[in-house]
Design a protein that fits this description.
about 260 residues; alpha+beta; four-stranded antiparallel sheet; 10 helices; 8 strands; about 45% helix; about 15% strand; elongated
Length: about 260
């Protein structure tokens, strides 16, 4: 094991349990290495609520999905070293999924205004979301698409963006709209989708289009192309990494028309 990295991680506030998980060993092994390197062990955790502070340190379906969701519908505060997700009470179950995925020990806060919130205090998520996913405090119109994400996880990130700030409609003509980010961010998403999904162009309907809607840009897919994009986005997904009410829209249409 890299003892220098273990010492550095601990001195940056990461707990011995999280470090042990990272190196796939027992916590006592980490404590022994720290003591042998002259590091005084903390008596208390640096944060009130515990969570897996290394959750966004690596790329996997879960970390990429929740990073995409935070990019679209989360709040990163560098000055307060915190990350929070604020949703309607109708989506409380989705915050429960986030809580379970990250191992968060605290409570989800619910207000009388029909809203709920989960808050991660500490610099770890803030730092890793910026390093791996380009997510900063001022992300709404200046978010750069994170080219660091491995190709096999791109659809998980984009699905998170759609769940956080997108719209699915599967009536007579399916339609998928992404409303998060500026033109460059949406253009990158469109190019990635085009490189992974076979889209068909019809003279009487556009296959995809980035449009201006008020002060924001939106990316729209219609018809069979929208359905093909949804097929790709939900590929290999499970209920813990998708917003169930949007997945039901997609799956209901598939059952009615493609079953």
């Amino acid at each position: 094991m890299d003892e220098n990295k273990i010492v550095s991680m601990y001195q940056n506030g990461i707990g011995t349990c999280e470090i042990a998980d990272y190196f796939a060993c027992h916590r006592t092994s980490i404590q022994r290495i720290l003591k042998s390197n002259g590091v005084n062990l903390r008596k208390k955790s640096p944060t009130k609520n515990q969570y897996n502070v290394l959750f966004f340190d690596n790329f996997n379906p879960e970390s990429c999905y929740w990073a995409g969701f935070i990019a679209a519908d989360g709040h990163v505060r560098h000055n307060r070293a915190s990350v929070d997700i604020h949703l309607s009470k109708n989506d409380l179950l989705h915050l429960e999924k986030c809580k379970n995925a990250t191992g968060f020990s605290g409570n989800i806060e619910c207000s009388e205004k029909k809203s709920c919130r989960i808050t991660f205090s500490g610099k770890w998520f803030v730092d890793d979301l910026y390093r791996n996913f380009n997510i900063t405090s001022r992300k709404s119109m200046s978010l750069d698409f994170p080219t660091q994400i491995p190709d096999k996880f791109l659809h998980h990130f984009i699905r998170g963006v759609v769940d956080g700030d997108g719209y699915l409609r599967c009536g007579k003509i399916p339609r998928m709209t992404i409303t998060s980010g500026g033109f460059a961010f949406l253009n990158n998403i469109e190019q990635i989708i085009r490189s992974h999904v076979v889209l068909k162009f019809k003279k009487d309907a556009y296959d995809s289009q980035i449009m201006k809607s008020g002060n924001v840009f939106v990316l729209v897919f219609c018809g069979n192309n929208a359905l093909a994009v949804m097929d790709w986005l939900y590929l290999g997904s499970h209920e813990n990494v998708r917003l169930e009410r949007k997945h039901k829209v997609y799956w209901g249409y598939k059952q009615r028309n493609c079953g």
